[in-house]
Every structure is written in structure tokens, then in C-alpha cells.
Automatic annotation (TrEMBL):
The modification 4-aspartylphosphate is found at residue 53. One of its GO terms (cellular component) is protein-DNA complex. One of its GO terms (molecular function) is transcription cis-regulatory region binding. Pfam families: Response_reg, Trans_reg_C. The keyword Ribonucleoprotein does not apply. Residues 118-223 form the OmpR/PhoB-type domain. The keyword Phosphoprotein applies. This is Two-component system, OmpR family, bacitracin resistance response regulator BceR. InterPro entries: CheY-like_superfamily (IPR011006), OmpR/PhoB-type_DNA-bd (IPR001867), Sig_transdc_resp-reg_C-effctor (IPR016032), Sig_transdc_resp-reg_receiver (IPR001789), WalR-like (IPR039420), WH-like_DNA-bd_sf (IPR036388). It is found in: Cytoplasm. Residues 4-117 form the Response regulatory domain. Residues 118-223 bind DNA.
């Protein structure tokens, strides 16, 4: 079986060099053409291994590593010029299998790839268990469903602010001020309408109660629990740019701040 390696690298020269080398070793190489859609392209490619840079547009490699690891056990190798020990620790904590510093020897990269693939697929075990069905991504092995919901720019920004507040109430004035700082000019009535629409969209993925109104105080994104043996994961993305906002599990919000 031809192994597909998904390379997430924004430097065209480095990507081309990697692609040339990997293809000479009989690997198929693909990569994202948009760095705000890494997860969508990863699931489409059904790759057997991921090579990831740390510094990327939109979100860094640690973020995408955690996103991939939430739905797949595919091996992930970081390839980066950053050599601080904490970068390596962070990569391992996010679920990476190895961390190689640039510049690197192609023979070393090749041997590490072969070793990881051998360990992962030695028994013919296919780790690509993600199926797209009716707009949802289903991980058969882990019993996980990811569903996408389109958000406008304002809805996305408000949700990000509320989730990153970590169960702290954000006043209406504070929320409007943050929107203005991001050049999203809204008034009091527009804010109410945006919150209402956001709640309606969250209701589509059973998160209608995730944003709570504290009368006279403001809004708060809360954590909540459901039946322990049910594990839905909802994938919320920005409409303009289509990138991930956060993952909401049945038992918690995952804070990416």
C-alpha cells in the first residue's frame, strides 16, 4: 500500500524539498493549500503520517497537532527550526511522536519515518478510521463524531471571547469593547441579535445551553456534563476562512487559550 504523508509546512522551498525527498522514497505527499483548513484537508487525504512545522499562519503546529490527535492516532512528526526544550515538550504533550530540528539530515528523517510507520502499521492496522457522513466526520475506532457549524465573523469572535473567559462572566459592554477592538463595530441591539443567532446555531449541535445570560451582568460560556458513556465532539468553524474555533466534548469545553 502506498503511504500518504501529509506535510504541513508554509515555506514553499522547504515543502518542495520534503516532497521531492519523500517521493523519491516512494511516498505520496500532500499538503494544505490553505492553512485555516488543515483539519478538513487532513481528513480528506486519509494520510498515514503527518509532518508538521511549529510556526504556521493562523494557528501554530501545536494547535493542529492537538486537533488531529482528537480524532486520529496517525503518527505526527514535528519538523522545526525552533530548538527550545519547551517546544519539544509541548509537541510531545500535544501528542506528537517525534520532534526533529531544522536543519536536518534526510537520512535521519527517512529512518525515523520508516521506524514510526513500522511500529504503527506493522500488523496491518489501519489508523485512518475517519469517514465523512452527512456533513459529519465519524471516527469508527474511537466512537467520535465531529460536526461542523458555520459561524459569521462576529459570532466566531464572540464565541472565542466567551470560551477563553473560562467560566467568567463577560459584560455586554466588555464584549462590545472587544468587538470594537477587533474592528467589528456593533451596537447594543446588534450584539443581542448576534448572541441569539449564535445560540440558535449551537442548538443544532446540542449546545444551546452553553452560553448563559447572567441578568444585569452579561454572558458566560459554561462547562456541563452529560451521560458519561456518550462522547460527541462538535467541530465549530469560522464561516469566513473556515477554521476551527474550539472542540466541545460531552463533559467539558476545551480551552485553547
Amino acid at each position: 500500500m502506498e503511504m500518504n504523508i501529509f506535510v504541513v509546512e508554509d515555506d514553499d522551498a522547504v515543502f518542495t524539498a520534503l516532497k521531492t525527498g519523500l517521493e523519491s522514497w516512494s511516498f505520496k505527499v500532500t499538503g494544505p493549500d490553505r492553512f485555516d483548513e488543515v483539519m478538513r484537508l487532513f481528513t480528506e487525504q486519509q494520510s498515514q503520517l503527518v509532518i508538521m512545522d511549529v510556526v504556521l499562519p493562523k494557528f501554530d503546529g501545536f494547535y493542529w497537532c492537538r486537533e488531529i490527535r482528537a480524532v486520529s492516532e496517525v503518527p505526527i512528526i514535528f519538523l522545526s527550526s525552533r530548538d527550545h526544550p519547551m517546544d519539544m515538550v509541548m509537541a510531545m504533550n500535544m501528542g506528537a511522536d517525534d520532534y526533529i530540528q531544522k536543519p536536518f539530515h534526510t537520512e535521519v528523517l527517512h529512518s525515523k519515518i520508516q521506524a514510526i510507520l513500522r511500529r504503527t502499521y506493522a500488523y496491518g492496522k489501519d489508523k485512518s478510521n475517519i469517514i465523512e457522513w452527512n456533513g459529519a466526520l465519524i471516527d469508527i475506532q474511537r466512537g467520535v463524531i465531529r460536526k461542523e457549524v458555520d459561524l459569521t465573523k462576529n459570532e466566531f469572535f464572540m464565541l472565542t471571547v466567551l470560551v477563553e473567559s473560562n467560566n467568567i462572566i463577560i459584560s455586554r459592554h466588555g464584549l462590545m469593547r472587544k468587538l470594537w477592538e477587533d474592528e467589528q463595530f456593533v451596537n447594543d441591539n446588534t450584539l443581542t441579535a448576534n448572541i441569539t443567532r449564535l445560540r440558535q446555531k449551537l442548538e443544532e449541535i446540542a449546545l444551546s445551553e452553553a452560553i448563559v445570560t447572567k441578568k444585569g451582568l452579561g454572558y458566560m460560556a459554561i462547562s456541563f456534563r452529560r451521560t458519561p458513556h456518550v462522547y460527541p465532539i462538535h467541530h465549530i468553524k469560522k464561516k469566513l476562512g473556515s477554521f476551527v474555533c474550539f472542540l466541545a466534548r460531552c463533559d467539558q469545553f476545551v480551552d485553547y487559550a
